[in-house]
């Protein structure tokens, strides 16, 4: 991986912001992702994210922290003990420059510890890539969750992006095992990342996966555009 997301985040942090990230998926055209959005304040965050930050408690693990905006708020405004992790070394460097005390470059599947809140925001469950991997993913999160802990995750039901057939059903390409599995493309400053798998999971499917992993699942809030915030707990 060229870590283009991380490079863009670090460029912005170091005052080298000249252009945005461009993303596309197997079912959507190219679209610009403004890098300043990754550095948003609490007041600029969507209601789903604000709600998740209000519900956060105890020792918090921010998985796939990116530029660290959620961690920074919880650390500085809520005075919570936060650990920010990301597979991107450049993103973690930016987090440290922003003043996040505990920031580490690591894959959550290799991470150990005990946390009262595990945050998976900005479609954090998407890092599974494929639906058949979410069982192992949730099983691991369960091992690092305290008995009274919570996993707060947001995602979207992207069924709306598919065309309807004559009978009103959705036309979904046969190569998809599940309609929320997409191939994601990222480019930045003339460089292109190798396409990678990303998962958008509808609430009912998440609930089923949670139950299969011995977790309870609760719908906390629905957003304005097929998105939602859920809480998973033992």
From TrEMBL:
Its EC number is 2.1.1.172. Residues 56-186 form the Methyltransferase domain. InterPro entries: Methyltranfer_dom, SAM-dependent_MTases_sf. It comes from the Bacteria. Keywords: Methyltransferase, Transferase. GO terms for molecular function: 16S rRNA (guanine(1207)-N(2))-methyltransferase activity. This is Ribosomal RNA small subunit methyltransferase C. It comes from Kordia antarctica.
